[in-house]
């Protein structure tokens, strides 16, 4: 993983050089008045005010009133919003945690699958009491969940069983380096979701990267009165 991959791309609007400079000054020195922001950025006060107001409209800055005990009108100050955009390193965090599982767990694949099953149960829509979910409904809910996570998924019959074609793995970079962790986790997600729905399907295995951008999940139909999650990954 190169240095450029350590931080995630910033999901922020294009601000331009001057507005970005004003935002950086607020983050470093705020709260500031218009004149202080202008002095620190080298902009004319009217220009600084224009960019400050623009940052407020974009949700990247907030206005505040100066607290003062003496006479006179309190100044309007600007500060960077607490939820403002900045560098995020979730990808690096995922890399660290994945390497920890792969390098220190006695059975990293099973640990990852167990975590996946727990999160699959959590993310799936639990049926109402006494509601029976048939295979078609379960597949619709499962592919919808996978789409929400970031996969492109399509279910198709494979004899008496079901094959889910998965494209655009949202974990691809991690999976290419730690397939023994990420792919069992993905299989566990499917298993946990099906179990939470009490679906008449069980995920038997996952074949990763059968093509450069394609993985295959193999689901087996089971009796609606039976219970099971499946446990084997590819």
Automatic annotation (TrEMBL):
Matching InterPro entries: ArsR-like_HTH, WH-like_DNA-bd_sf, WH_DNA-bd_sf
SUPFAM superfamilies in UniProt: Winged helix' DNA-binding domain
Family annotation (Pfam families): HTH_20
Entry coiled-coil feature ranges: none
Descriptive protein name: Transcriptional regulator
Species assigned in the record: Actinomadura rubrobrunea
């Amino acid at each position: 993983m190169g240095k450029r991959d350590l931080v995630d791309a910033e999901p922020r609007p294009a601000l331009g050089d001057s507005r970005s400079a004003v935002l950086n000054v607020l983050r470093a020195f705020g709260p500031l008045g218009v004149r202080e922001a202008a002095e620190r950025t080298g902009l004319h006060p009217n220009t600084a005010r224009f960019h400050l107001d623009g940052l407020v409209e974009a949700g990247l800055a907030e206005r505040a009133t100066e607290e003062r005990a003496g006479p006179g009108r309190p100044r309007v100050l600007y500060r960077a919003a607490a939820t403002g955009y900045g560098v995020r390193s979730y990808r690096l965090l995922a890399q660290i945690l994945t390497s920890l599982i792969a390098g220190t767990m006695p059975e990293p694949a099973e640990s990852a699958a167990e975590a996946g099953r727990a999160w699959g149960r959590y993310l799936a829509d639990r049926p109402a009491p006494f509601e029976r979910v048939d295979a078609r409904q379960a597949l619709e809910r499962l592919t919808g969940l996978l789409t929400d996570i970031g996969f492109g998924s399509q279910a198709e019959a494979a004899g008496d069983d079901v094959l889910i074609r998965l494209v655009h793995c949202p974990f691809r970079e991690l999976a290419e380096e730690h397939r023994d962790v990420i792919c069992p986790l993905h299989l566990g997600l499917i298993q946990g979701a099906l179990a939470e729905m009490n679906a008449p399907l069980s995920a038997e295995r996952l074949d990763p990267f059968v093509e450069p951008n394609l993985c295959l999940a193999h689901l087996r139909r089971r009796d609606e009165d039976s219970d099971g999650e499946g446990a084997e990954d590819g």
